[in-house]
Every structure is written in structure tokens, then in C-alpha cells.
């Protein structure tokens, strides 16, 4: 799908020769910019201060909403904002990490303020979710596993090995956070009774019988 970024009606009401109707080639034949609309090329080149269109070898453009976020609804209970799904979970995760006490006794229940529980608190914020998380900064990259491995190796005091890494994963607790769809009052018949997520009520925990999520029925019941 190609986004529409502007209108060009310059071909209407004008008599041009066949040669004049040919689109102009900016940057020369065979260049990257020759395959794009001239007005788009000129706009980007002007913004970047580029004089030679042929020097542009590639670009990655994204169209997104630039309007500021605002509150809405009868009681101002809604937040209208672009890309809010990722921001909500990212903000909550970072706030939780910052609010976590460095005193491990508050987590383990130890008596000593200097009790070393060995707990490592981490937050992973990834990109490219909508395209499958396959790029180097996505969730399916090796960035997080390698980071965890380096942390364990640095704290292992020369006793690092594959078994220690496996034990760390086995003793870890993972939360994969994202937003979910709230109950739609127009389609109440498609929801299970007691399983209708409502806005501003609380956290929703999802489980998928098709095993498409990290959470399962048994682990959820145990927690």
C-alpha cells in the first residue's frame, strides 16, 4: 500500500506536447530518485539540504500522525494518541523498574538490609513488532539473550557456563506486556462470560489455547 501524500492536478487544463508530458527524471536515469515522484524527491532533498539528487542512494519513509495527544470522552476518561499501545507498556515497565527498591530484602523477605538475593531486574523495549520483530532491534533478535549472558558472565566470578545460564532462565519470571482489545458492547455475544476486558478496571491476563502466547493455562493458575 502506497500512502497518498499530496495532490497533483497540473496535467488538467493544460495543452502540453508529448515530450512535456514525460515525467522529469531527477538525479539521472538509473538512479534511486528516478523511481520516485519528483515533488517528493525535491521535498526530501530540500529538507535535508541536498543539492545533487543523484547522491540519494536510498531512504526509509514513514507516515505517522503528528497531532498531539489529548483527553476525550464525557469524563475525559479516554486518551487519544498515536502509537499509544507501545507507549503505555513501555512507560509502565520503565516506571516499575525505577520504582523497584534496590533493597533485595523487600523482595525476598530477608531480615538484613544488605541481603543479596541475586535478583536482576530488566526491561526490554523492542522495535519492529508490526513486521514480525525480525530485525536486529526486534524481540526475536539475539540482543536480549546476549545481554543476559554478558550480565551473568560478569557476575559469575569465573564460574560461568551453559548450565548457569540455563538455571538463570529457569528461575526467571517473564512478563510480556501489550495492550488488548476491550469488550465491544456491540458484540457481547462473542465473548465468554466473565472474560470481557473493560477499560480502566485492571490488568488483563491473556491465555491462548492454540499456544500462540507465552502464557499458558497451568502457569497462570499456579501464580
Write the layout of secondary structure elements.
Layout: H1 18-21, H2 38-48, E1 70-72, E2 78-80, H3 84-99, H4 105-108, H5 143-155, H6 162-170, H7 217-222
Antiparallel strand pairs: 1-2
Verbal overview:
It is a single chain. By secondary structure, this protein is mainly α. 28% of the residues lie in helices and 3% in strands. Strands 1-2 form a two-stranded antiparallel ribbon. Strand 1 and strand 2 form a beta hairpin. The chain is extended, with a radius of gyration of 27 Å. Mean pLDDT is 80; it is low at 104-110 and 112-116.
Could you give a quick summary of the protein structure above?
With 223 residues, this protein is an all-alpha fold.
Uncertain regions: pLDDT < 50 for 5+ in a row? 104-110, 112-116
Query: What is the overall number of helices?
Result: 7
Fraction in beta strands: under 5%
Average residue pLDDT: 80
Share of helix among residues? Answer: 25-40%
Radius of gyration: 27 Å
Biggest sheet record: 2 strands, antiparallel
Order of helices and strands: HHEEHHHHH
Span between termini: 44 Å
Structural class: mainly alpha
Form type: extended
Order of strands in the sheet with most strands = 1-2
How many DSSP-defined strands? 2
Amino acid at each position: 500500500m502506497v500512502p497518498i501524500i499530496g495532490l497533483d492536478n497540473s496535467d488538467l487544463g493544460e495543452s502540453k506536447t508529448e515530450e512535456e508530458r514525460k515525467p522529469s527524471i531527477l538525479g539521472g536515469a538509473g538512479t534511486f530518485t528516478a523511481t520516485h515522484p519528483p515533488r517528493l524527491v525535491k521535498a526530501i532533498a530540500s529538507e535535508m539540504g541536498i543539492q545533487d539528487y543523484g547522491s540519494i542512494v536510498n531512504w526509509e519513509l514513514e507516515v505517522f500522525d503528528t497531532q498531539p495527544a489529548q483527553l476525550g470522552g464525557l469524563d475525559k476518561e479516554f486518551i487519544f494518541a498515536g502509537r499509544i499501545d507501545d507507549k503505555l507498556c513501555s512507560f509502565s515497565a520503565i516506571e516499575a523498574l525505577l520504582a523497584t527498591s534496590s533493597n533485595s530484602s523487600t523482595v525476598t523477605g530477608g531480615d538484613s538490609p544488605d541481603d543479596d538475593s541475586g535478583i536482576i531486574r530488566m526491561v526490554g523495549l523492542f522495535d519492529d513488532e508490526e513486521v514480525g520483530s525480525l530485525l536486529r532491534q526486534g524481540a526475536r533478535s539475539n540482543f536480549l539473550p546476549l545481554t543476559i549472558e554478558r550480565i551473568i558472565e560478569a557476575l559469575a566470578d569465573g564460574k560461568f557456563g551453559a548450565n548457569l545460564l540455563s538455571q538463570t532462565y529457569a528461575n526467571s519470571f517473564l512478563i510480556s506486556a501489550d495492550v488488548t482489545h476491550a469488550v465491544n458492547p456491540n458484540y457481547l455475544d462473542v465473548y465468554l462470560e466473565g472474560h470481557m476486558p473493560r477499560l480502566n478496571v485492571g490488568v488483563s491476563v491473556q491465555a491462548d489455547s492454540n499456544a500462540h502466547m507465552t502464557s499458558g493455562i497451568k502457569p497462570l493458575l499456579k501464580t
